[in-house]
Amino acid sequence: MSGQYQLGTHLFSSRIILGSGKYESFEQNRACVDESGAEMVTVALRRIPLDSPEGRSLLDHIPPDRFKILPNTAGCYTVEDAVTTAKLGRELLETDLVKLEVIGDDRTLFPDVAATIEAARILVKDGFTVLPYVTDDPVACQRLAEMGCAAVMPLAAPIGSGMGIRNPANLRIILETVEVPMIVDAGVGTASDAALAMELGATAVLMNTGIALAKDPVKMARAMRLGIEAGRLAYESGRMPQRLYASASSPLDGLANF
Fold first, then answer.
1. What span, in angstroms and rounded, lies between the C-alpha atoms of 72 and 130?
2. How do beta strands 5-7 and 68-72 pair?
3. Strand pairing category for 5-7 and 10-12
4. What is the topology classification, in CATH, of domain 5-237?
5. How far is CA 118 from CA 35, 47, 86, 114, 177, in A?
6. CB 28 within 8 A of CB 35
7. Which terminus of the chain is less hemmed in, N or C, by CB atoms within 10 Å?
8. How far is 224 from 229, CA to CA, in rounded Å?
9. What stretch of H or E contains 100?
């Protein structure tokens, strides 16, 4: 995939980040990671046990010496819980990376923006490379970038909804007003959603349910990889201007006069 990007001190080439929930097995999860070409996998510390017997842990199938493991604070509803969970992830996985989630609403799983900003402030000060999950609010993303977050991760649609990008205009504004990478998180349902995110200029896309709940998750993982690649190439190529009226694709000069 075209070019590398940086999150803190970490360099990546793949522009797809995979989750590790809702798969039928760890083996299926690993097969999807391989097919997608992902280099980083996010793990919900409060939901996936990492201390299972040998051979039955997620980390036996997606080992930290082969992939970057991104611990996340999914399931946290307060600043205190999120900070404590992030510190636990740093100890268990020996990484400064954290995907910060502070949920504000059970039904939509939308983040609590004020609590997210406060938790981010604490974790950045403590030396974490913070990747905050947040609404597609340009002002919130600006605040998070200004305080030292390594990226911002606005949702495209509610977590697990598969609705695709509901508000591309906001994502464009975020891209124009923050100087850190923007990773589209939540709501991607199929390859065209991923391609659109990349065409807008997103640095990467994080996805889970769109692959895990597909009829053929491994095949969908490949489709997502190809969508990401196509979208990034289109973004780098620069699309033609849109016009209201037709424009002849062949030049009019030198036409035969019958």
1. 10
2. unpaired
3. antiparallel
4. TIM Barrel (3.20.20)
5. 37, 23, 14, 6, 21
6. no
7. C
8. 9
9. strand 97-100
Query: For 172, how many CA atoms within 13 A lie in the half-sphere containing its CB?
Result: 8
Pair of tokens at residue 41 = 């996998």
Neighbours of 237 (CB within 10 A): 9
Length of the chain: 258
Query: Which residues have C-beta within 8 Å of that of residue 158, sequence separation ≥ 6?
Result: 108, 109, 110, 186, 187
pLDDT in tens, the chain (258 residues): 458 999 999 999 999 999 998 999 999 999 999 999 999 999 998 766 666 666 578 888 999 999 999 999 999 999 999 999 999 999 999 999 999 999 999 888 899 999 999 999 999 999 999 999 999 999 999 999 999 999 999 999 888 888 899 999 999 999 999 999 999 998 899 999 999 999 999 999 999 999 999 999 999 999 999 999 999 999 999 988 888 888 777 665 666 666
Token pair, residue 216, equals 């053929």
**Residue with token string 């929930």:** 21
215: annotated active-site residue? no
pTM for the model stands at: 0.90
Q: Which of 68, 99, 215, 219 is catalytic?
A: 99
The Cα-based distances of 79 to 108, 111, 174, 179, 229 in angstroms read 19, 12, 24, 25, 36
